[in-house]
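Obj: model holo form, ligand = hypoxanthine.
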Amino acid sequence: MTNAPRSAADDAPLRLLPKVELHCHVEGTARAATVAELAAKHGVPLGVDDPDDLYTYESLADFLAAFATVCSAFVEAEDFHRLAYEAAEDAAAAGTRYREMFFSPGFHLDRGIRFDTMWSGIVAGIADGEADHGVRTRLIMDIDKPKGIGPAMALLEVARVADRDILLGIGGDSTERGVDHHMFEPLISEAKKMGLKTCFHCGEDGPAENIAIMVEAGVDRIDHGTRLLDLPDLVKRVVDEQIPLTSCPSSNVELNIVESLEAHPFAKQLDAGALVTLNSDDPTFFRFDLADEYERVASAFDFDEATMLKIRDNAIDAAWLDDSDKAALRAELGA
Ligand code: HPA
Ligand code: ZN
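Output (holo structure tokens):
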């Protein structure tokens, strides 16, 4: 019942390389065994005999249904603590040393879980995960885009009470289909007024125009941005302004957003001068971790060591840390 067999060996150089990750969902790190145990504890039906079977899909829509089922196993603060703690344990095994990680309250509030229950559990879990496994984690609150601007603004209000040393920013995830991204312009401007950083999933299962809308709205990072190259003027702006992309090539292959890693635009985006970073998105759901992702991408595009280091360093540049913290992280992670 382990759903994360590693393909990059324990001593593979890209596993040992100290890494930074900017696009990973805490719920997307849930181990099948943990989900099974917690679902049994709370009497939550998972609809499958073997929880490993939850983690199969052919599209983003299938994936989001599985994601919601996995979320339903997490009820008490101690469950969220375990989720975040195990996320740090698994991240350490992938060589991740610093991570800005999403959590998605929409999937939990819907089930009657209080914001404070998930927040206090996750915050305690990342603290213990850092103490025991050396992975520093900060959080990004994701709003569920299809719910619309009303629930998104309401969540932003809830986030006012969150410890701002831990909550660095907000994002938006789920499908782009049928979602007019213009509606999120006030969310981005209000978040900025609150001093929060902003990012948005876009150009994943939607067109490059959604990236253009969110760039115009002023987001600090684009999550995925897979379709960026479809709009040359936008490429120029994203490159000129060095707006980071948190790319997740293997996730895009798994969800049939692109046909294969080789066909993924990651290498072309890098060549065009974009500040692209590599990320695992939902590692247990896709059965690989960040070290595997580095290995796969290096092999698909025949990238040499210097290129992989540049990609790693891009993630330090794109992190939401101030300049002195970035310099310290750069020194700590070395070459
Ligand atoms: N895209 C959209 N929604 C998500 C993702 C993703 O990559 N991961 C978790 N929720
Ligand atoms: Zn994502």
